[in-house]
User: Which sequence fits this backbone?
């Protein structure tokens, strides 16, 4: 542990900054975890893109199709490659609380900086606030590591700002990935103050959230490594400019990425988001690989449309970066 439990909030406030990306997990043609491909991706994200942190084994990573041992292995590889160069946040989310705690203990022992736990499925509930508070209170009581909340309304309820702010009073609750409407996360930012680092996954709102809400971290999704290359780090550039107060230049750089956003958005089939992002990684020269069932692969026609949009979106690459 790099900090004591009682210092978790201060440590996170000082260190959880900049662009944090959520990994996609490369699987080989046989469906096996491609460890070498994953390590190559990590080295590129850390060394070439200079990312501030990594969100490992979340939904983008297809944790739901992985064994417990595979999830643990993914965590170990990420910590090993990150070293002291990059922060690590390990997803311990699961419908089974024993699994959450087992993964949390493993992440803590492996040297992760933080863990993140998705809000639980609460079937048939009409009132959730007390259940949610007790869920996170119990988890925090079992671990020393800093804990981030992860919420989007997957399970049919919205975790309101009031209960989030209450949970933020727990000593080792440090952050929240809060994928809700902007008025809700704006209210939580105001309510929680320095007790909770608030973020969301919407890249198109990131600049305004820095400027208007004082946010310090983009936590976390795939744009930091899908919209950037070693030779074209415009997302990092506009982030730095905004945090330095040069808002007009930041907006110009941010807006210059519109063709890249459009290419990603307009070619992504609604039923194949993971396969589409992995194919985009392949086009970038990263290791995308296959998806696991129940997810679907892209058709040849979908790949052709994505490649055509990719090649004309203006994302700069050197020849040796091309797929």
Assistant:
């Amino acid at each position: 542990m790099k900090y004591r439990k009682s210092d978790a909030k201060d440590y996170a406030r000082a260190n959880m900054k900049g662009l944090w990306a959520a990994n996609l997990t490369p699987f080989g043609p046989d469906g096996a975890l491609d460890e070498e491909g994953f390590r190559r991706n990590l080295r590129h994200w850390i060394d070439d893109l200079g990312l501030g942190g990594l969100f490992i084994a979340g939904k983008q990573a297809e944790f739901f199709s992985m064994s417990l041992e595979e999830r643990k292995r993914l965590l170990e590889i990420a910590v090993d490659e990150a070293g002291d160069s990059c922060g690590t946040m390990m997803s311990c989310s699961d419908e089974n609380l024993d699994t959450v705690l087992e993964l949390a203990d493993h992440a803590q022992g492996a040297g992760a900086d933080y863990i993140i736990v998705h809000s639980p499925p609460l079937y048939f509930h009409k009132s959730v606030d007390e259940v949610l508070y007790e869920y996170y209170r119990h988890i925090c009581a079992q671990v020393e590591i800093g804990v981030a909340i992860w919420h989007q309304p997957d399970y049919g309820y919205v975790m309101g700002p009031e209960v989030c702010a209450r949970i933020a009073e727990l000593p080792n609750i440090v952050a929240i990935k809060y994928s809700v409407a902007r008025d809700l996360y704006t209210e939580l930012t105001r309510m929680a103050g320095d007790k909770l680092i608030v973020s969301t996954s919407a890249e198109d709102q990131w600049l305004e959230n820095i400027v208007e809400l004082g946010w310090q971290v983009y936590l976390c999704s795939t744009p930091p490594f899908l919209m950037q290359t070693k030779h074209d780090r415009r997302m990092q550039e506009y982030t730095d400019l905004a945090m330095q107060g040069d808002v007009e230049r930041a907006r110009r750089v941010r807006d210059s990425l519109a063709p890249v956003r459009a290419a990603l958005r307009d070619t992504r089939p609604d039923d194949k988001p993971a396969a589409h992002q992995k194919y985009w990684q392949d086009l970038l020269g990263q290791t995308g690989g296959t998806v696991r069932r129940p997810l679907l692969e892209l058709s040849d026609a979908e790949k052709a449309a994505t490649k055509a949009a990719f090649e004309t979106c203006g994302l700069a690459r050197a020849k040796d970066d091309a797929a």
The mean pLDDT is 96. Strands lie at 18-22, 53-56, 87-91, 114-118, 146-151, 173-178, 197-199, 217-221. The longest strand covers residues 146-151.
